[in-house]
UniProtKB/TrEMBL annotation, chain A:
Cross-referenced CDD domains: TM_PBP2
Membrane-topology descriptor: Multi-pass membrane protein
Organism name: Streptomyces oryzae
Sequence intervals crossing the membrane: 31-53, 65-86, 92-111, 143-168, 188-211
Keyword Membrane in annotation: yes
InterPro entries: ABC_transp_perm/SBD (IPR051204), MetI-like (IPR000515), MetI-like_sf (IPR035906)
Pfam families found in the cross-reference section: BPD_transp_1
Keywords: Membrane, Transmembrane, Transmembrane helix, Transport
PANTHER family named in the record: GLYCINE BETAINE/L-PROLINE TRANSPORT SYSTEM PERMEASE PROTEIN PROW (PTHR30177), POSSIBLE OSMOPROTECTANT (GLYCINE BETAINE_CARNITINE_CHOLINE_L-PROLINE) TRANSPORT INTEGRAL MEMBRANE PROTEIN ABC TRANSPORTER PROZ (PTHR30177:SF33)
Protein name: ABC transporter permease
TrEMBL record, chain B:
Topological relation to the membrane, as annotated: Multi-pass membrane protein
Extent of Low complexity compositional bias: 235-257
Domain of life: Bacteria
Species per Swiss-Prot/TrEMBL record: Streptomyces oryzae
Domain annotation ABC transmembrane type-1: ranges: 35-214
Region (Disordered): 229-265
Name the record gives this protein: ABC transporter permease
UniProt record similarity statement: Belongs to the binding-protein-dependent transport system permease family.
Subcellular compartments: Cell membrane; Membrane
Keywords assigned: Membrane, Transmembrane, Transmembrane helix, Transport
Length: 229, 265
């Protein structure tokens, strides 16, 4: 059980947190990478998925993308991109790889959310004379919001995980603590780094679950389920 | 320079090209060993996970109190990034394949428990009551009614878990047991393009082949789900040959072709 003591000592040592390559710098890189890629992938996926869902096309694409994303190893894509022509542009190989793996959950969930918005409500809104844009913004989007947020949450957790792997081909982030620990045969550092990554991932997941609940426009409505069934 | 790239047998290796036939020929045994390691790590992990997930899901179904903890713990495990998971298991098992297998078992558990539970929940109450009325005890009810009806959901879970495990095994390279991931890792460190691309491609092929094999198993084990597809196909107006023999076998093959396109895309 000595390893827990070693990990605690590693974490309690101030010099491991500050300075070049310290925990704080790696944490900053990790959060920056995750944040930038989440914004980028949302900016790409959400408008596309909302529009596809609104016009009701591309469903097979949105669903199969998740399956394809699962079959392609993240590690392989990270290494391939960092060795390819993109590798010359600093963080960009990592950012492109991260965005690629964040897109499927965002696309699939947002598309499903819009498609499965109550068709009667949508028809009623159309009957009231709403234009396509009004329909999307005032009816379909609010109804799809819970699923969109689920997609954002899944994508964020995926991004935290992929950003960890970015350390393998030499990117930044908390994964560097783990790979550096492996390089020095320093098990305490490997486990400390892994703990930090796990805590960050769980924190991101919890925070977004909370945000999901707060943002849900239907949360203050009385439960309608008994009457609608 | 260009003459070497064009004709020389050592050309593509010397030029460090992405696609290289010489690499495939000369490193055949290395590639085969890595692929075999990849397959056994994946297969072992999913098998162990299935053996644990079944009783866990059945327990969570029987005792309501076990449900929330079972789902909660597996979700937390699933949230932990793979590199961190393997690193956390390092002090327990040391540098061994057990690190990778245990990590993959924990990930597969999440998918399997959820899917088996969903399958058991979806068993129609009528089927259960009819069996009970016929005098089935709880054990027989589970084995002969509930589990067979939950089989499609279970096998769907096995498919997701297997494809995910094939992809995650590559991360095992960090402890030296990553199957094809080892080749990707070494290729990354020595900047060997052909090795990285070939190993990555085999990995994707492995995932697709495993998925198709399990899809075939799913079809073979749950023939009643196919009967429904056949009926739908027969009812469809597009069938030019009528509802007789020729249209019946074509329905499943058309469905599998659709799945193939989906995976490849």
């Amino acid at each position: 059980m000595g390893i827990f003591g070693d990990v605690w000592v590693w974490l309690a040592t101030g010099s491991h947190w500050t300075g070049d390559g310290g925990v704080l710098q790696r944490l900053g890189e990790h959060i920056y990478l995750t944040g930038v890629c989440l914004l980028l992938s949302c900016a790409i996926a959400l408008p596309l998925a909302l529009w596809l869902g609104h016009v009701g096309r591309g469903g097979a694409l949105a669903v199969n993308l998740s399956n394809a994303g699962r079959a392609v190893p993240t590690f392989a894509v990270l290494v391939l991109l960092s060795m390819g022509p993109l590798g010359k542009y600093g963080d960009w190989a990592t950012i492109v790889a991260l965005v690629l793996f964040a897109l499927p959950p965002l696309l699939t969930n947002a598309y499903t959310g819009v498609r499965e918005a109550d068709r009667e409500v949508v028809e009623a809104a159309r009957g009231m004379g709403m234009t396509g844009r009004q329909l999307l913004r005032q009816v379909e989007l609010p109804l799809a919001l819970p699923l969109i947020m689920t997609g954002v949450q899944t994508a964020a957790v995926q991004l935290v995980a992929t950003a960890t792997l970015a350390a393998l081909p030499g990117g930044g982030g908390l994964g560097r603590l783990i790979t550096a620990g492996f390089g020095n045969y320093d098990t305490a550092q490997v486990v400390a780094g892994a703990l930090l990554v796990a805590v960050l991932a769980l924190l991101v997941e919890r925070t977004l679950t909370l945000a999901e609940r707060l943002l849900d426009p239907m949360r203050r409505r009385p439960a309608r389920r008994p009457t609608s069934v | 320079m260009s003459s070497v790239a064009a004709g020389g047998p050592q050309g593509c290796l010397a030029q460090n090209e992405w696609l290289c036939g010489t690499y495939l020929r000369t490193r055949q045994s290395e590639l085969l060993d890595a692929t075999v390691e990849h397959i056994w790590i994946t297969a072992l992990s999913v098998t162990i996970a299935l053996l644990i997930a079944l009783p866990l899901a059945v327990a969570a179904r029987r005792w309501r109190a076990a449900r929330a903890p079972a789902l909660g713990v597996t979700t937390v495990l699933y949230t932990i990034p793979s590199l961190a998971m393997f690193a956390l298991l390092l002090p327990v098992f040391g540098l061994s394949a057990a690190v990778v297998v245990t990590g993959l078992v924990l990930y597969s558990l999440t998918v399997l428990v959820r899917n088996i539970l969903a399958g058991l929940d979806a068993v129609p109450a009528e089927a259960r009551e009819a069996a009970q009325g016929m005098g089935y005890g709880p054990g027989r009810l589970l084995l002969e009614v509930e589990l067979p009806l939950a089989l499609p959901a279970l096998l769907a879970g096995v498919r997701i878990a297997t494809v995910t495990a094939v992809s995650l095994t590559t991360i095992g390279a960090i402890v030296g047991y990553g199957g094809l991931g080892n080749l990707i890792y070494d290729g990354m460190e020595s900047y060997f393009k052909a090795q990285v691309l070939t190993a990555s491609a085999i990995c994707v092929v492995l995932a697709i082949v495993a998925d198709l094999l399990l899809l075939w198993l799913q079809r073979a084990l749950t023939p009643w789900t196919r009967v429904r597809t056949r009926k739908r196909a027969a009812r469809a107006p597009s069938g030019p040959s009528g509802p007789s023999a020729p249209s019946a076998p074509s329905a499943p093959s058309a469905a599998s072709a659709q799945d193939l396109v989906g995976k490849a895309g």
